[in-house]
Amino acid sequence: MGRQQIYKLASDKSEEQLNQEVPSSFPTILQTLNHILQTQEYWWSHISESNDFDFEKKLSTKEEIFEALKKTSAQLMAYVQKLSELDLEKSIKVESQWFQCDFTKYEYIQQLILHGTYHRGQIVTMGRSIGITDAPMTDFNYWNLYKAQQ
């Protein structure tokens, strides 16, 4: 829900707005969205045990980034829905240039979700600083209320 709300917020904004620099972890909303995508694909490569993440892949337009985010989100959701509790408890060792860890798939899924949530909050704040005032609610409670109404 939060991810879809951010797509909705950014979809009618101009490339100029989405590329306007503001002080944050990443200088623009579009670069922040691209970071969310790259990180989602990175963790997906470990969760799915495919290890096929491409560090060089960078998308530049909002359409490319939104399409890739939607695709990887759907892919992840379909995969996770098929996992058993035993599958979720499987440990996966990750060795990267930044860190080494050996956590369960469940914990990596949680990391992926929390990371996206963190940066979506940044996007709302970045948007406000450049005059975008129509940010939607993305809190988990809001999502639960929305889901209950469906």
Name the CATH class.
Mainly Alpha
Topology-level CATH name: Four Helix Bundle (Hemerythrin (Met), subunit A)
By oligomeric state, this entry counts as single chain
Shape: globular
The CATH architecture: Up-down Bundle
Helix content: 55-70%
Characterize this entry briefly.
By secondary structure, this protein is mostly helical. The chain contains seven helices and two strands, in the order αααααββαα.
Layout of strands and helices, then pairs:
Elements: H1 2-11, H2 15-18, H3 29-47, H4 62-82, H5 85-88, E1 91-95, E2 100-104, H6 105-129, H7 140-149
Helix pairs in contact: 1-4, 3-4, 3-6
Textual characterization of the structure:
- This protein is mainly alpha-helical and 150 residues long.
- 62% of the residues lie in helices and 7% in strands.
- It has helices at 2-11, 15-18, 29-47, 62-82, 85-88, 105-129, 140-149; strands spanning 91-95, 100-104.
- A two-stranded antiparallel ribbon has the order 1-2.
- β1 and β2 form a beta hairpin.
- The chain is globular, with a radius of gyration of 16 Å.
List keywords for this structure.
Four Helix Bundle (Hemerythrin (Met), subunit A); single chain; 150 residues; two-stranded antiparallel ribbon; 62% helix; mainly alpha; 7 helices
